[in-house]
Amino acid sequence: MNTVVTSKEEILKTSRELIRREGWSAVNIRSVAAGCGVSVGSIYNYFDSKADLVGAVVESVWCEIFHRPEDASVFRDTQACIIWLYGRMKYGSKQYPGFFALHPAGFAGEDPSDGKKRMQQAWQHMLDGLCTVLRQDANIRSDAFTEQFPVEKFADLLFSLMLSALLRQEYDPTAVLEMIRRTLY
Predict the structure, then answer these.
(1) Of the candidates 7, 163, 176, the residue with the CA atom closest to the CA atom of residue 78
(2) What is the DSSP letter of 24?
(3) Which of 9, 132, 142, 181 has the most crowded Cβ, counting Cβ within 10 A?
(4) What is the average per-residue pLDDT within 108-130?
């Protein structure tokens, strides 16, 4: 058995593979070490605890699912962005069954603060991205947003609908797109 892991990314890649094959509960220090072909101590060279590993894996999965598209025009059109996001949600659900609903359970019995913080950072990044798209979309009426109804509130609404769809495992953006059309165009 190797005693040196080539990289932190290799550990995260192995962890993602474990989730794909065996589900979220398969991620622990021993299973990841076995998957990497290294000793348990080698994993601890990169992660201080199971909670640290789990937090990094959560962040890694979120980043893989919602990586930037090759076509940057997705971020200039709100409807295209929503279609892309729902497509990525469907991809994530297929690649990581149960991940969206179950990964918080991976923190049970551990200090959840790091994983929760990483997840919230990923969510904030997505919210900020939605705000940017809404501000850059030339098709949106100039009076669509006001002081009482700013871009941030609409982005928060869109993000809430997205999270709700994740939990229901519904990846058809048709209703959200209709709401956008009626509200903004």
Answers:
(1) 176
(2) G
(3) 132
(4) 73
Rounded (to 5) percent helix, strand, coil in the chain: 70, 0, 30
50-92 residue pLDDT tens: 888 988 898 899 889 988 777 778 888 999 999 999 999 999 9
pLDDT digits (tens, 9 = 90+) for 130-149: 999 999 999 999 999 999 99
Residue pair 68/147 in contact by the 8 Å Cβ criterion: no
Taking the C-alpha atoms of residue 44 and residue 31, their distance in angstroms, rounded to an integer, is 13
Name the helix (H) or strand (E) containing 121: helix 113-136
Residue 107, C-beta contacts closer than 8 angstroms, at least 6 positions apart: 51, 54, 115, 116
pTM of the model as a whole: 0.82
Q: What are the tokens at 129? A: 């991205």
b/e map of 105-126 (b: 16 or more CB within 10 Å)?
ebbeebebebbeebbeebeeeb
**Which tokens belong to 93?**
């659900």
CA 176 to CA 126: how far, in whole Å?
17
Structural domains for the chain:
8-47 (1.10.10.60), 61-184 (no CATH)
H or E element, residue 158 = helix 151-168
Amino acid at 147: E
Instruction: Please give the single-letter amino acid code of residue 23.
Output: G
